[in-house]
Design goal:
GO molecular function: hydrolase activity
Distance between the termini: 12 Å
Shape: globular
Strand order of the largest sheet: 23-24-25-27-26-28-29
Oligomer: single chain
Protein name: WW domain-containing protein
Pfam families: WW
Largest sheet: 7 strands, mixed
Strand content: 25-35%
InterPro entries: AB_hydrolase_fold, Plant_Biomass_Hydrol_Est, WW_dom, WW_dom_sf
Keywords: Hydrolase, Signal
CATH class of the largest domain: Alpha Beta
């Protein structure tokens, strides 16, 4: 905990803490990204420099041991485009970087799979990734979507992955070199694992019989990846005795691997979109779950306050984050933050402002900075127009996902719990680093920083209250809560 005496000091302190940590990226993505470096030209001098589109690093010299295949330049009309030195391909936007896990995404969700670090890695689901020409072999778990330099004790790699013409194919370890032993996708194992058999038996029980591909579910009860608790998504596949649930596109579409016991039907108040109904005028309508009906159905409440019973397969769960534009800003602009909507657990509409980092890229995890304003309102970047040029705000605009909730309480009141709900929703995003979340506030927001930090200390790497008046009788309680 840090107590600061000025607003600028709080920002500098929070950003300094954030930069001390490293942002972990899946090694599979790093090792396979032969096209992550792009050659560009300095507009003033014409000198070539190199930009890493994953880490946003820029260097003057070509990266050692890496082949730079993409070049960025302008056409005759001044529009920027990219061209591939080997294939001579040209494009307005760079294609997504290839990595081994992409090819085993569920067929109807190709490209939607994201890498999430999970602690439970089946020992028989490892692939040895070789032949990419970018370094020594490493191991990738196609169930947990994790990668390691060395196998865990007792683990085995039943398959090896090789790259040809920019695409991965798979072979069984020890198999003869023949076309029958090579596959473009992860082949189905001859004998299902004990975990897979247990899942099959569990899904056949009356308690889990409602689970089927495409159904919307609630994730809860996770002890390791707690940030996914309370999130809703779609069951898209099962693999290695676990269920794969895809979260909302607005969160980056991460796929979470969980046990069936951690999945439940959607709770009352969950927001859904109706689809595939015979009454076509209702398709696309937004509704809320009112209750569970019999025969695998929901009773939903429509916007005109009427109720209707619909099959569970005809509703698509919606995230509580709305109106978010994922386009990266080019620079820090006065009042340039997005005005976004969050729907809290009680169905109330809450407003907040969002600023994505300059150069934002969804496949990179960014630290999250939450700013609580004072009585006069505002955001981190609207304190004064002149301050936009300050080193601290410029650094924040490049480095953080910055969220500024519209604090609707007064300086004598307590912060509303929906702010914590908003933060928890953002932590499930594939583009937020859940280990690097910082909370700061000014005046009334400084008081809110103490209170929210004490209510949910496990969410934050650090807090920075500034000019935060508080009642003395609360000090001992706050200290005890923050110390855990």
């Amino acid at each position: 905990v840090c107590f600061c005496i000025s607003r600028d000091h709080a920002l500098c302190w929070a950003t300094a803490v954030a930069t001390r940590g490293t942002h972990m990226v899946n090694p599979a993505l790093v090792a396979a990204a032969s096209d992550e470096w792009v050659e560009l030209s300095d507009e003033k001098t014409g000198r070539a420099y190199y930009w890493n589109r994953r880490t946003k690093e820029t260097v003057w010299s070509a990266p050692e041991g890496r082949k730079v295949v993409w070049n960025g330049t302008k056409d005759a009309s001044g529009l920027f485009y990219f061209w591939h030195r080997e294939t001579r391909e040209t494009c307005w936007e760079l294609p997504a970087m290839e990595f081994p896990g992409k090819s085993i995404a569920v067929r109807r969700h190709v490209g939607a799979l994201r890498s999430e670090t999970l602690s439970d890695e089946p020992l028989d689901a490892w692939v040895e990734v070789v032949g990419d020409g970018l370094g020594p072999p490493y191991y990738w778990n196609y169930v947990a979507m994790t990668s390691r330099d060395r196998l865990l004790p007792g683990a085995r790699a039943a398959l090896s992955a090789h790259k040809i013409d920019g695409r991965y194919y798979y072979r069984r370890v020890g198999a003869r070199s023949s076309s029958q032993d090579s596959h473009w996708d992860i082949p189905e194992l001859q004998e299902p694992s004990s975990e897979a058999r247990e899942l099959r038996e569990e899904l056949a029980t009356p308690l889990r019989s409602w689970l089927s591909f495409g159904v919307s579910v609630l994730i809860d009860g996770l002890s390791s990846e707690k940030r996914f608790n309370g999130q809703v998504g779609q069951l898209i596949d099962t693999r290695g005795g676990r269920c794969l649930v895809q979260l909302a596109d607005i969160l980056g579409g991460p796929v979470v691997s969980v046990r069936a016991r951690h999945l439940s039907p959607l709770p009352k108040g969950a927001i859904v979109k109706l689809q595939g109904l015979s009454q076509s005028q209702l398709n696309g309508e937004i509704a809320t779950i009112e209750s569970n009906d019999v025969d695998l159905r929901y009773v939903v409440r429509l916007r005109d306050n009427t109720q209707k019973s619909v099959p569970r397969m005809k509703v698509l769960a919606r995230c509580r984050l709305w109106d978010v534009n994922m386009s990266a800003p080019n620079s820090l602009q006065w009042k340039g933050e997005q005005s976004c909507l969050f729907i809290d657990a009680e169905g109330h509409h809450r407003n907040y402002f969002l600023h994505l980092p300059i150069g934002f890229y969804q496949r990179v995890k960014w630290p999250l900075l939450v700013y609580l304003h004072g009585t006069g309102g505002g955001t981190l970047f609207t304190y004064s127009k002149k301050s936009l040029k300050s080193e601290g705000l410029q650094f924040a605009a490049r480095t953080f996902v910055v969220v500024s909730p519209a604090c609707e309480w007064n300086w004598k009141g307590s912060p509303h719990v929906w702010v914590i709900e908003l933060i928890r929703s953002l932590l499930a995003a594939a583009w937020v680093d859940a280990r690097c979340v910082y909370l700061c506030g000014w005046s009334m927001g400084g008081m809110g920083t103490w209170e929210i930090g004490a209510q949910a200390p496990e969410l934050f790497a650090a807090i920075a209250p500034v000019a935060a008046h508080h009642k003395r009788e609360r000090e001992a309680t706050l200290e005890a809560q923050l110390r855990g």
